[in-house]
Design goal:
There is one protein chain. The protein is an alpha/beta fold. Helices cover 40% and strands 22% of the residues. Helix 6 packs across helix 7 (173-181). The longest helix has 19 residues, at 187-205.
Length: 230
């Protein structure tokens, strides 16, 4: 049974989500402000559903602090149509987002999709990948750049893995969106969210050198992981 933490100051909404998730066989805990979330032990939680607007600390600040020492999957709850909130969440390290008002069935589907991406199935586990100084372990979901271990979120790992598996081939934004988030988005959201993720991965691969060195932009199409000549 997966353990879900709901963080939302709307007590009635949090209880509604909890009841729905419990019917779907999740173990659920609810808290109602940012500091309470940070006091929870991430080792005892499989996924956090985190509202952006919280008392005490904003959801963004809570996520920022979580990401300092944890890769626990986080789904953000954002105001409908607030692309800025979504982009900021992805930039900080969110794995997905759901717009308010929350559709419980959609939230359950997103939770299950993120958990599937986090937990590698033995049937789909592949051997390690090593291309152009990048090494990925699909089994442990760890990544290294020239022996330096990378701190990647679930969506970032999925995106990088897809690019590396297709090294030397142009990959469209639509394809990367499906790989990173497990679903197709609107055209506008695809462009913004994929571009944000690519920017983050580039910085983590080459923090002190040319950020466009390995993941190159193919204008109006997508991206390509360039085979290294070094």
């Amino acid at each position: 049974m997966h353990r879900i933490l709901i963080v939302d100051d709307d007590v009635k909404l949090a209880d509604m989500i909890r009841e729905f998730l419990e019917l779907e066989n999740f173990a659920v805990e609810t808290v109602h402000d940012g500091p309470a979330c940070l006091r929870c032990d991430p080792q005892n939680i499989d996924l956090v559903v985190l509202d952006v607007m919280l008392p005490g600390l904003s959801g963004f600040e809570v996520l920022r602090r979580l990401r300092q020492n944890s890769t626990i999957p986080v789904i953000m709850l954002t105001a409908r149509g607030e692309d800025v909130d979504r982009i900021i969440g992805l930039e900080i390290g969110a794995d997905d987002y759901v717009s308010k008002p929350v559709n419980p069935r959609e939230l359950v589907a997103r939770i299950r999709a993120v958990l599937r991406r986090v937990v590698s199935s033995p049937r789909t586990t592949a051997s390690d990948l090593a291309v152009g100084g990048i090494r990925l372990s699909s089994a442990s979901r760890d990544a290294w750049s020239h022996e330096q271990k990378l701190d990647l979120t679930t969506a970032e790992f999925n995106l990088l893995e897809h690019l590396v598996r297709n090294a030397g081939r142009v990959v469209s934004r639509e394809e990367l969106s499906a790989a990173a988030f497990g679903r197709q988005l609107s055209e506008r959201s695809i462009d913004r969210n994929v571009d944000t993720l690519v920017s983050k991965v580039r910085r983590k691969l080459d923090p002190e050198s040319d950020p466009d060195q390995r993941i190159k932009t193919v204008r109006n199409v997508g991206y390509i992981y360039a085979l290294s000549s070094r």
